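Something for you to look into today, if you have time. Could you write out one complete protein record for me, on any chain you like? The space below this message is yours for that.
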Amino acid sequence: MSIQSLGVGIVGYGFIGKVHAWAHRSLPFFYSPLPAETRLVGVCTTRPETAEAARREAGFEFATTNPNELLARPDINLIHCCTPNDSHGDLLLAALQAGKHVYCDKPLTHTLTEARRVADAARGVSTIHRMTFHYRFAPATLRAKELIESGFLGELYQFRAGYLHAGYIDPNRPRTWRTVMGKSGGGAIMDLGVHVFDLTRFLVGEFDAVNAQLVTRIPSRPDVVTGQPAPVDVDDIAIVQARTKSGAIGIVEASRLATGVQDELRIELHGSKGMIAWNLMDPNYLDVYDARDPEQALGGNRGVKRIECVSRYPKPWSFKTPKNTLGWNQLHAHSLYDFVRAVAENDTESGPTFADGFAAQAFVHACQESAAGGGIWTKIVSGDVE
């Protein structure tokens, strides 16, 4: 039986574009059998020399500076959006209109209005659209989802979730598009907050409202071209109180000034029957506490337990032995695998879809509105079609 072959076009080839290309090259090693084969057909960047360098590096068949060349090719089935945030909207709409399956690195767009346009358009197509919310795809977070759906937590009471980086603690790091509101759509709350929000929502359900403090501690940075001080108008730190529609309350935190950390995404969920916790810097284990274990003299067996999730993906995962440690790039590979599987099986139901991308955008927007109003409780708008 022949296997379906899917041509790939990647728009944008900075760090994240390279990660997406690497993931495609890696799929045959990690999964056997594959639901479909993929081949790198075209890559698009803003300059001919970088496009050609990308073509040579990853082995694309051709390079261009015009994304419409990728959209017009009948041998390209999958389009990856790996460009700066403010260019997402037009590219995603064009790709959907061209009948392509679309894989968008976060965020969906840089404004709620644009996100609404894209999410509404995506509802009207038969092709597959996915967000790269790859933290859903660690064995530990997938196991956490199973436990929660089985009732392990009971009623969720509270949660704490955060994504902390230290990449901007140097005030001499130049100002780029990521620190300009009109291009990025936000600072830590957009860059990191969408990831921690999506993972928390994936596990505990819909959010209802937030109150937020968004703080800019380094108000200017050297311009990347002139070197002169230039204003920063996005947040460095976000501290958010959040309430879910089920009534649970919690804290969502995002920071690019968390001195002493590397890539710390952590989540802790407390319910009437148990606790679940996970940390990206210790990704191989899921910590759980079962309140139904009896309290006994000398402690009995009650206490926090560590589930050995490691690299125990279900088949067709086939590359490593289950005991091998997990790496960040494997989450990207598994996220991409599930996108390719969805395309091959015409699975329009599973996510994360552009509707999930809109939900993350609505969370960011509500946090920004709350902070602008002095930290008032602000409802998160729904993704219903307008």
